[in-house]
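Q: I'm writing up a methods section and want to include an example of the input and output format. Could you take the sequence below and give the corresponding predicted structure tokens, formatted cleanly so I can copy it straight into the document?
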Amino acid sequence: MTAAAHARALELSAAAIDFQLSLDEAAELRRHLDECETCRADARLLRSDAAAIAALPGLDAPERVRTAVLACRAPRRLGSIQPIAAAVILAVLTLVPLSATFLSN
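A: Here is the clean output for your methods example:
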């Protein structure tokens, strides 16, 4: 099999965790995984990682983060990047301490 076929299988395996694949995509992935032990193992690891992440406790953002995000809020204008920037800041400030805790265990 080609490197492109393996990359496609990995892409479909990752997408299948959060999204429903089309019938054609699901069949393509199943055919590849039926023939490729390496990609089967990679798909198992992806599912295992997703399950571990889903099992983590939810955390409220610290007050300083909520305040910073709300301070960035402005009236929505078409094409405004501010809501996206605020979401990225919130995600980073919340996930960095969480990932440090998760990785230390």
